[in-house]
Sequence to fold (312 residues):
Amino acid sequence: MDYIELTVSTTTFGAETVSEILMENGAAGTQIIDRNDLPDPDHPGKNWELMDRTLIEQAPEDVQVKAWLEASAAVAVVEAVRARLEGLKAADQAGALGALTLSTGSIREEDWAENWKQYFKPFRVSEHLVVKPTWETWDKQPGDLIIEIDPGMAFGTGTHETTALCIELIERYYRGGKLLDVGTGSGILAIAAALLGATDVVAVDIDPDAVRVAKENVEKNGLSDRIAVREGDLLQGLSERFDFAAANILAPVIQMLAAPLTRHLNPDGLFVCSGIIEEAAPDVEKALLDAGYEILESKTRGDWHAFAAKKK
Fold:
């Protein structure tokens, strides 16, 4: 099967909005290529030692959001996306969303794996956790916990600040008990928690493709006995209570989720949340406080925020 590749040029600020537009118009998932997610090639730091310097230097200047569609369905979708982008650009008087230009190209299914693999190298995401694709090697150090993720076309790999923030806070605050991962995507947070010692994890996502990919990743990491991946809409259908919850989703969803989640958390239960753009952080903090949480920590990376909070 052949695919059409859509590429939208935008900014770090606009990447999530563009991604949502592509998803709403039929893309199975998106890839965000952002120079801000890459190290300075002259000072790569310990987390990026295996990153190919050429790839860093050749990364596009604009943030690019890519999506892939079956060629047979692409024409109508491209027109709809282009119209949405034109409307967005007209409303963006300050230019915060960048060029919002759309380009297309064709790609054969057999070429896909090699195309995206070049951007995904092993990296240390927290003190003990390392994210590694199955086709790469890693010189494991004492205490390293390896997450093997092959997300394919649709789901994230943990390189984005929001995922890293969430994993760092899980590593810092998880001390045992039943754990809930809301909006699991590739399953990376659930896998991280299980490697850190969680033996009873429920990972939920509304997208059946995400559920499939998460299950595959859980199996690759040998954690099917610890992690149950379910299809569901946020907390709907959940009857259990948890000691710890994690959510790497959009800020408005976290605001909506904060209060209902308290009914599923045990006393002193912890909630780690990320995916919060800078402008939305005060609103999320207020929602957490109004719902009766104590803020344990607010952590920032780039334009993104994450919170660790405890149910009072």
In short: The chain has nine helices and 14 strands. Residues 123-311 form a domain with the Rossmann fold fold (CATH 3.40.50.150). Confidence is low (pLDDT under 50) at residues 43-56. The radius of gyration is 19 Å.
